[in-house]
Design brief:
Helix content is about 35%, strand content about 35%. By secondary structure, it is α+β, with helices and mostly antiparallel strands. The chain has one domain (about 25-140): Nuclear Transport Factor 2, Chain: A, CATH 3.10.450. It has a 6-stranded mixed beta sheet. The longest helix is centred in the N-terminal third of the chain and has 22 residues, at about 1-25. The protein is globular and about 35 Å long.
Length: about 140
């Protein structure tokens, strides 16, 4: 009898783990949505579209700049607007989706030499409003 109970627990546990693994498998659609959000983040930053930025950046956002400064949503998407990011393009983008969370790693290559090429790591989470950036880190590429 003990063997059957143990076997039942093992089978149920295995099925549970299998269902968890299935639910965290990334979908191409989710990866495309996050990739599009990354592109929109860069375009909105360049255009100074702070309304779009405030939708993309979560209220509880935290990040670090390439100079090591810790920043919040208000720093990267101020309520009253502010400057704009130089024009650039995202290259070498890799997105990994883990359920409702995604990590995006890539490079920002700017048309001007300022601030040069940056490597970024962003954490996105899917919320009711869509994919929002909750954390980011920038570093310079020499």
């Amino acid at each position: 009898m003990r063997i059957f109970i143990c076997l039942g627990v093992v089978i149920i546990s295995g099925l549970r783990l299998f269902s968890i693994a299935q639910s965290t498998n990334p979908t191409p659609q989710a990866e495309q949505e996050v990739s599009a959000a990354v592109a929109k983040w860069l375009a909105s930053s360049h255009q100074g579209d702070f309304t779009a930025l405030r939708k993309l950046v979560a209220d509880d956002f935290m990040g670090t700049t390439f100079s090591g400064q810790v920043v919040s949503k208000e720093d990267v998407a101020p309520q009253g607007g502010g400057g704009s990011f130089p024009e650039g393009a995202v290259q070498d983008l890799h997105v990994h989706v883990y359920g409702d969370t995604a990590v995006a790693i890539g490079a920002l290559v700017f048309k001007s030499n300022q601030p040069g090429t940056l490597r970024f790591t962003e954490v996105w989470t899917k919320r009711q409003a869509g994919w929002q950036m909750v954390a980011a880190h920038l570093s310079r590429i020499s």
